[in-house]
Specification:
about 40% helix; 3-stranded antiparallel beta sheet; 7-stranded mixed beta sheet; single chain; 15 helices; about 375 residues; binds zinc ion; alpha+beta; elongated
Length: about 375
């Protein structure tokens, strides 16, 4: 009878009635565990998939809650043990448990470092002359699954394409930004709540993770002067807890057009064209007054729901409209801060959340899905 037959019987059935008998049974088990582990390590690990399989199998054989060696020992030896033997069986069982800790999956994987070079591990096929040839070219190749474009990237590119066609160009800037470019130059006063460290990630008193892509507006004005027509896609950071509509890291696209005689009509016309290109010809835009420190006047843009055409549905929360963007005429002080004369030039700007656009367009109800890297989700795009 092997030790593995013995663990399916009670000590009484095995006729073991003293400490010495118990100890020698457990010694036999430890030896078996060590033997199986050594055998696996000696076997080597040519391939990742095989390594995972082998390690899991050994772990399960010994440590699985249901039917593993340890659980059988617990069930058949420890639990039914009589009063006199219980302490020694318990003691031995604990010792075995500590001993088999190195059969945990992670420990096994660690003990089996993956061979970097898969090829030399494989048995070399013999050529016609009986000599080993380096590789069997008749074997099928490794198939690597094709990736796809992340929905947020896809959305961003769609937005970029529309504005590129209108003659805008793409500008980018640093994600670690000075408070001057992130706040001061944009006319955001010292006392503004968005400067609070509950809202903004500060690196030090003068440096932040940018809270919007707007600092690039100032940088571009300084760099190019007027006229100017750019869009600014990029990552932004705010002190938000992740939930279905917030993320501490998110994506924005801003647009900025500066020239002589630019009016609010240009802004409305451009954004109307933009949403029609993105959501379809039938979509209408709605502008409502709003306030931002860096634009005057400022507005919020909503589009008629492209799903229900304004009738009310789940996507538009029964309102018929979807709030999408903030916009306005660039504040004269902001133009001045960028080195542009507001007496001669005027401009408009807008800002939108790319993640939100992607959620609306692809009907996704949880923003976190974008950032969790779950292939089941991502493979749909
Ligand atoms: Zn709707």
């Amino acid at each position: 009878m092997t030790i593995f037959d013995k663990i399916s019987r009670t000590l009484q059935e095995l006729g073991v009635s003293d400490a010495q008998g118990v100890e020698s049974l457990f010694a036999e088990l430890r030896k078996a565990a060590e033997h199986e582990r050594a055998e696996l390590v000696a076997r080597g690990t040519p391939q990742q998939a095989q390594r995972v399989g082998l390690c899991k199998a050994l772990r399960d054989r010994w440590l699985a809650r249901k039917g593993g060696v340890l659980s059988q020992v617990d069930e058949n030896w420890l639990k039914p043990a009589g009063k006199e033997l219980k302490p020694v069986v318990g003691n031995q069982f604990n010792k075995l448990r500590r001993f088999t800790a190195n059969l945990e999956f992670e420990k096994l994987v660690e003990a089996l470092p993956l061979q970097q070079e898969a090829a030399p591990q494989m048995e070399l096929p013999l050529g016609a002359a009986g000599r080993a040839v380096p590789w069997d070219l008749t074997l099928p190749g490794l198939r690597r699954p094709l990736g796809s474009i992340h929905p947020v990237t896809r959305m961003q590119r769609e937005i970029e394409d529309i504005f590129l066609r209108l003659g805008f160009w793409i500008e980018s800037g640093p994600e670690i930004e000075s408070t001057y470019y992130n706040f001061d130059a944009l006319n955001i006063p010292e006392s503004h709540p968005s400067r609070d460290d509950w809202d903004t990630f500060y690196i030090d008193a003068k440096t932040v993770l940018r809270t919007h892509t707007s600092p690039v507006q100032i940088r571009a004005m300084e760099k190019y002067g007027a006229p100017l027509s750019i869009i600014i896609p990029g990552k932004c950071y705010r002190h938000d807890n992740p939930d279905s509509t917030h993320s501490p890291m998110f994506h924005q696209v801003e647009g900025l057009a500066i020239d002589e005689d630019i009016t609010f009509a240009d802004l409305k016309g451009t954004l109307d064209f933009f949403v029609k290109m993105l959501f379809g010809e039938k979509v209408r835009t709605r502008f409502q007054p709003s306030f931002f420190p860096f634009t005057e006047p400022s507005g919020e843009v909503a589009v008629s729901c492209f799903v229900c055409d304004g009738q009310g549905c789940r996507v538009c929360k029964e309102s018929g409209w979807i709030e999408l963007m903030g916009c306005g005429m660039v504040h004269p002080q902001v133009l001045r801060n960028g080195g542009i004369d507001p007496e001669k030039y005027s401009g408009w700007a807008f800002g939108l959340g790319v993640d939100r656009f992607a959620m609306v367009k692809y009907d996704i109800n949880d923003m976190q899905l974008f950032f969790q890297g779950d292939l089941r989700f991502l493979e749909q795009f």
